[in-house]
Amino acid sequence: MLGVFVLMIAVPTVATERASAKFVFTHFNTDNSAGIQSNLYIFVLGLLMSQYTLTGYDASAHMTEETKNADRNGPIGIISAIGISIVVGWGYILGITFAVKDIPYLLSPDNEAGGYAIAEVFYLAFKSRYGSGVGGIVCLGIVAVAIYFCGMSSVTSNSRMAYAFSRDGAMPLSSVWHKVNKHEVPINAVWLSAFISLCMALPSLGSLVAFQAMVSIATIGLYIAYALPIFFRVTLARKYFVPGPFNLGRYGVAVGWVAVLWVVTITVLFSLPVTYPVTKDTLNYTPVAVGGLFILVLTSWVVSARHWFRGPVTNLGG
């Protein structure tokens, strides 16, 4: 959090040339190598990045067994994560954007950062002021630390999910993954999550397309997973759903429908091509990847899991 505030203040302050407010709030980068000139299309694609950034707030739900007063603090954690991300993220984007002047150059593979736009913004801001881009490299280090903590949070959340599924007997070798150590941490599930994360990251070294397909599955898969219980809450369970102590009252159903429709919308948007003309190298394989995963999961349920899986196992007495 501190690093984000440092970046949103330091970068535009250090930069000797700053963009105008008109440029920041009204300019669309139609001069791009993606072959996209439509302002609306550019806006839609930009919207997807914020959707990707906001994922992960379900970690509060996965950590409820280790949370005091989880029935209230869990939802508060989710709402807080979204609210803080919106406010701080908006400020960070504004700070960076005011330091941007030449977008095509930032995206050029021939610049000092090899086309990595954010790194180039940091580098140019400090080089223009001090004649050296070392400060920009330090800023990039702050980003690296933030990414590390994001990874740690993801592994923590995922390991608790693996623990819950294995406790319910829904994973291969469930007896191994739901064991906890003396600190009451599902250590085997943590190592499993770290190992799988490493394996999923390795393809990026050889095939960016394969890595992007996995990222797409993760993003859309998460939002579909978020939307499904909401959908069933506002349809099948509408009459007999028992709200917890933290709820939206009479607005719950309306907000639920808005959430479901929004997920449907962004799922379609995530499937749109991001580069034209569309070829085998530029095709957005997200629908194929997500559809393939859906078929595998559905087949597994029909053929096997429905015969033995009985749902979550309660660990509460009485």
Automatic annotation (TrEMBL):
The keyword DNA-binding does not apply. Its main location: membrane. It is found in: Membrane. Gene3D superfamilies: Amino acid/polyamine transporter I. The lineage of its organism: Eukaryota, Viridiplantae, Streptophyta, Embryophyta, Tracheophyta. The keyword ATP-binding does not apply. GO terms for cellular component: membrane. This is Amino acid permease/ SLC12A domain-containing protein. It comes from the Eukaryota. It is a multi-pass membrane protein. Residues 1-16 form the signal peptide. It comes from Brachypodium distachyon (Purple false brome). The chain crosses the membrane at residues 40-57, 78-100, 130-151, 189-211, 217-236, 248-272, 284-303. GO terms for molecular function: transmembrane transporter activity. Keywords: Membrane, Signal, Transmembrane, Transmembrane helix, Transport.
